[in-house]
């Protein structure tokens, strides 16, 4: 709608809003005034009749009263009826225009009474101050309302004519006012539609609209000038953007090249460092298995510990570099959570036991048995938090807790926490504890070493798992590191009941504290009824025929416990003894002739389950219960012939010694070319293949072997032994036809497990097992 019409419409609406109440008020006033005039008329008639009917009322003459009333009312057409009442309220005379409409039976008080179409008037008839009777008159209001309605119609007609005339005059005036604005709008549309900034508006007045036209013309001059300058700048900018784009492309290529060089440097550094470390750790491990005196064993243990610390530092630096370069990829594989927790605890148990710390692991009932994720990275985070807790705790305890929070469907959230009673972290250091190369104490007099990368790496890994690593700590009161992460459960919570002891009674003798509570909770989870005691005498008093198992903490083994041990031996009740690494030899000596099983501290549910099964079985060796299975040669039922390929003489010597100690036959090759020649000339069950070698590398040698096998012959498993530890390198090895991947430095147990995995026939299938990264 044009602006002129809008203004006319607004003016009309505003005028109507103002006039309608006024028109309504005038109508009300007109109606009220006409009604008052009618009442005044009736009042005059009433006075006349009252004066003429006083004698008739005084003498109670109905004929005279009838004559006076009739003569007085016949001349008034608007009066429909009347009546004269005496002092007693009896009708003395009546006037009716419609016989069907009777007069009131009795008079009402002096006054005017309005109804929808009539008005009733009652007046006292007085003479010399004496009330002689009452006069009643009824008049119709219809004639009065017709007059009011006629007046309103006349007023409405006058109003409409006035509005029409005002509208015509207003439209003429508005056109005079609006036309310059319309011209301004047309000029703006032409500029917008054509982009022609040369359009100008004619200035026809000196009022506000005229000034607006002048300002618009001035603005168009400015815009036109700016447009010319902008076009010139645009032309120049295109040249600059093209130059900058070329510079950015060059910078991008340089950055990519730098990233490639960094990755190559990390890979080469990993290879160069791990190669001699493989020789150091391997030779020390082999030497420790020989006959040594106390000093020699102490020296070699020191070398092994130092080399292990150096390897940990190297791994932290490489992990941080890989995280920074975005080369870490998390796996999504199903694994038993209990195994991951057990291995994490085992990695730090000796250190905690050496310091005399109580190390505990608490797992909530709702925690699933298996989850989907990266077990190695989760274990790396837990080991870092546990090692830090043990390092900074002089006395007390370290607790690893796992709980399930939120839903228990296929997608759950697990909450991990590591609490200690150590030195704590100052408030001003909490905010920077997860920064790379940051340490709580960076002075030259600091008591604890470290690279300052462990928590930064753990924080990054937790973030990749979908969580956030946080800390609560107070100086001198310990710390709690915690994180939660979404985890897809691989299977429901496994049945933890142990059938051999389900529903039976167990006695637990242990010092009061959280450690005793954890062991009791494990036993109850197996389905046992548990009674706990702090002294041997009270425990002995409760031993009877219902006792199926007794668990005695090694701390409680003393002279006072001998009667208890003798009673258990006499009754044939199985015994399980949780003991730390330092006290294992002494406990074995004391219980050498008794039936029982040692289980390692901290007591973990899977380990305790195996220990109870061993203690309940008469076929188990007395006091068996080491956490790790004894090393054994792979496939004892058949002889294996292995081809060992490595260009480094020390690496061949280490691996060869491990194979020789396991009783395995092997041949050596110093490069890929020699490996291919020996493979074609002999018959091998397994190939241990280095990757980076002169003449022909491991990938080329593997390709040559696979080509020969494709022409005819069985497929021989090839395991890569490489010092490369970059993310995704295992996939590279598998893509080149290898079957498995072990990262140097390797230990004997890892090597033997891999050999057994690829050479032991599967009872279910003859197919080779799936590849697994080392």
Task: Outline the fold blueprint.
Layout: H1 3-52, H2 54-58, H3 62-73, E1 79-86, E2 91-96, E3 111-114, E4 118-127, E5 130-140, H4 142-194, H5 208-288, H6 294-324, E6 333-336, H7 337-354, E7 358-363, E8 370-373, H8 375-391, E9 397-405, E10 411-420, H9 427-430, H10 454-464, E11 470-473, E12 479-491, E13 505-509, H11 514-525, E14 529-533, H12 536-541, E15 547-552, H13 562-571, E16 575-579, H14 584-590, E17 597-600, H15 605-616, E18 641-645, H16 649-661, E19 665-669, H17 672-681, E20 686-689, H18 698-711, E21 718-722, H19 729-735, E22 740-743, H20 748-759
Parallel strand pairs: 7-9, 13-14, 13-15, 15-16, 16-17, 18-19, 18-20, 20-21, 21-22
Antiparallel strand pairs: 1-2, 1-5, 3-4, 4-5, 6-8, 8-12, 9-10, 10-12, 11-12
